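Milestone 3.1: sequence recovery, worked example.
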């Protein structure tokens, strides 16, 4: 069986810079912008904006198409986190569409008969891996509050593409042909195999009339179409099939509720960065920024050894805290205020050795922290991110997912089911009996790394939006893009194209290419010895507001584009 390490290894526009002098951010002008991981999805969002739709209206259309053309990453069978900026009120709202565990799920969900955690690759395709999907319910909640067009009219492009067919992209073709366990599941094999027995490849036309029918039902009925009735029955049936059947019920689906809360916002330099609260990874990104703010990082450049060194060491501290303390705050106390406290951040940043990296740092002891065990939950790269600004200056930054490649590989009614529950800790306690903040519990949302960010100026005017897929690496990807545009004065596209460096514990991983001369050697001399990993799996998308209008960035590591109507 393919190991998790091998599995993870397989996942592998000239713009104006943002500067501290940009404190007087101009209001958004023009007709808006959409950046997402597939041009067909971007065009669907642009079509909504052309009709006078809002950013949230466009997000519904983009997600509907992504679930068809990029099913390895997200879909209506998965979940999402969104941050929304209202241009009139200048407030940022966080929407939580994270999946929930069935009520019957307990801490032994992923324990084998011997009481030990089962192999990840065994769990990932099981019925136990699927949580109650939340993306559609979350979008419906947000669209009801901020939409301008009728919900039923937001699925036109996705329905047409599903009925008439879409051209399989190279990335999707690679996932279909790849050695991922989900791609070899019966449902996935049936969907991706042509009548002549050959698998679909890049350039082929793929139709999905079942998905079109599901979208028509969702367009007419809203999330009720997914969470009640025949489709809900199909979800329960498929998740309770063996091997390793889950315990989801119709009541679990019917009871699902998305959340809308205030975003978590903290100052960074002359800006304000806003993210969703836990169980998202947003607060961890804020901790990373807070740590860097207590160093001389703002004196560095994107081509300096010192800048990348500080970036790596702040990451190590950030991950050590995140891995121990974060979970669903409805079930465990998450010491977010303590982790983001100014004195705590200053003390943690002081642990960064000035000349050479030391051994892996442990977690800190922030105010409000209880006794928690370190969590080594596996989070393979997957997921997708989109950013949208509409003509009124409202904005959406949304990370959305079915977890890893094609979720569990199980399908119902034209879409894949998520494997989101494998984001829980498989073991509820460590060997000493300390509890995991991210242990499984009925109704609980698993911890996430998704961290869709929105940047404001001091007057709370929109400055930037950014986010990425990539499993636990999302935290590093988003941190890189944010410091790239804020500290290193790069354009969004330039910041996205910077090499990805992931520093966690004693492990440093990065792309082999894209580095300025001498940086890798300089890092090695400071104890940061990097293991090259091709591609690193980011899918960053971002938008900047500049005096000349909106400028966007799309990650060349995937297939996305940033375009205006």
């Amino acid at each position: 069986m393919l190991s998790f390490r091998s599995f993870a290894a397989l996942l592998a526009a000239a713009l104006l810079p943002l500067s501290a002098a940009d404190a007087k951010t101009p209001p958004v002008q023009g007709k808006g912008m959409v950046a997402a991981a597939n041009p067909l999805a971007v065009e669907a969002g642009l079509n909504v904006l052309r009709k006078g739709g809002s950013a949230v209206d466009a997000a519904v259309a983009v997600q509907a198409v992504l679930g068809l053309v990029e099913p390895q990453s997200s879909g209506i069978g998965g979940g999402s986190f969104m941050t929304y900026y209202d241009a009139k009120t200048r407030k940022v709202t966080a929407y939580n569409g994270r999946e929930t565990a069935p009520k019957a799920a307990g801490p032994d969900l992923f324990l084998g008969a011997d009481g030990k955690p089962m192999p990840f690759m065994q769990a990932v395709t099981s019925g136990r891996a699927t949580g109650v999907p939340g993306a559609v319910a979350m979008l419906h909640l947000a669209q009801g509050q901020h939409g301008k067009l009728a919900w039923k009219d937001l699925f036109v492009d996705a329905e047409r593409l599903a009925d008439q067919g879409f051209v399989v992209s190279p990335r999707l073709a690679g996932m279909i042909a790849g050695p991922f366990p989900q791609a070899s599941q019966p449902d996935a094999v049936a969907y991706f195999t042509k009548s002549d027995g050959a698998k679909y490849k890049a350039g082929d036309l793929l139709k999905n009339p079942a998905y079109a029918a599901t979208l028509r039902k969702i367009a007419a009925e809203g999330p009720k179409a997914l969470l009640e009735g025949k489709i809900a029955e199909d979800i329960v049936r498929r998740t309770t099939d063996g091997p390793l059947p889950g315990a989801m019920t119709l009541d679990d689906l019917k009871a699902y509720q998305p959340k809308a809360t205030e975003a978590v916002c903290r100052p960074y330099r002359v800006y304000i960065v806003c993210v969703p609260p836990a169980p998202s990874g947003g607060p961890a990104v804020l901790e990373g920024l807070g740590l860097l703010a207590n160093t001389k990082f703002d004196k560095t450049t994107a081509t300096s050894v010192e800048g990348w060194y500080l970036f790596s060491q702040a990451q190590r501290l950030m991950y050590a805290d995140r891995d121990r303390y974060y979970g669903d705050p409805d079930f465990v106390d998450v010491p977010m205020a303590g982790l983001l406290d100014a004195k705590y951040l200053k003390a943690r940043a002081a642990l960064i050795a000035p000349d050479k990296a030391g051994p892996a740092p442990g977690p800190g002891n922030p105010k409000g922290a209880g006794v928690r065990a370190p969590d080594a939950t596996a989070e393979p790269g997957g997921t997708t991110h989109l950013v949208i600004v509409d003509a009124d200056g409202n904005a959406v930054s949304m990370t959305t997912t079915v977890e890893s490649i094609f979720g569990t590989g199980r399908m119902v009614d034209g879409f894949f089911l998520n494997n989101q529950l494998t984001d829980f800790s498989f073991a509820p306690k460590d060997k000493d009996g300390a509890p995991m903040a991210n242990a499984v519990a009925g109704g609980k949302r698993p911890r996430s790394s998704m961290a869709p960010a929105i940047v404001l100026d001091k007057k709370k005017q929109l400055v930037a939006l950014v986010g990425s897929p990539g499993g636990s690496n999302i935290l590093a990807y988003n941190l890189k893009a944010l410091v790239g545009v804020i500290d290193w004065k790069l354009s969004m596209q330039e910041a996205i194209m910077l090499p990805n460096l992931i520093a966690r514990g004693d492990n440093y991983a990065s792309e082999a290419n894209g580095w300025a001369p001498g940086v890798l050697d300089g890092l090695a001399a400071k104890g940061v010895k990097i293991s090259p990993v091709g591609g690193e799996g980011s899918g960053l998308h971002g938008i900047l507001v500049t005096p000349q209008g909106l400028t966007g960035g799309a990650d060349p590591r995937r297939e996305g584009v940033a375009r205006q109507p």
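The longest helix spans residues 305-325. The two ends are 47 Å apart (CA to CA).
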